[in-house]
Structure to design on (94 residues):
């Protein structure tokens, strides 16, 4: 006889609906994609960007790669991103 053990735990917190904090009024939203520098983080975000385009036609996407996974993003980079987009998706690759 085979016994199946389900490794999932009971959910401890009730799910909360997520509302986007960015204001999308006034035209096409602008979203930044920030790769952390790990291998494949840029390729992964390219796929995320395509999924976003399918959900939000007319979205403007901008991409950045901080280039060094072991160093934090500089204030200059973060200020530049904040000046150009309303929201950011940051992603990690390996």
């Amino acid at each position: 006889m085979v016994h199946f053990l389900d490794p999932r735990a009971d959910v401890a917190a009730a799910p909360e609906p997520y509302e986007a904090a960015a204001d999308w009024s006034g035209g096409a939203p602008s979203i930044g994609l920030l790769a952390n520098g790990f291998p494949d983080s840029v390729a992964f975000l390219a796929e995320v960007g395509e999924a976003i385009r399918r959900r939000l036609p007319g979205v403007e996407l901008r991409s950045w790669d901080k280039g060094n996974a072991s160093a934090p993003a500089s204030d200059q980079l973060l200020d530049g991103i904040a000046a150009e987009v309303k929201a950011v998706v940051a992603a990690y690759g390996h």
In short: Helices lie at 41-55, 75-84.
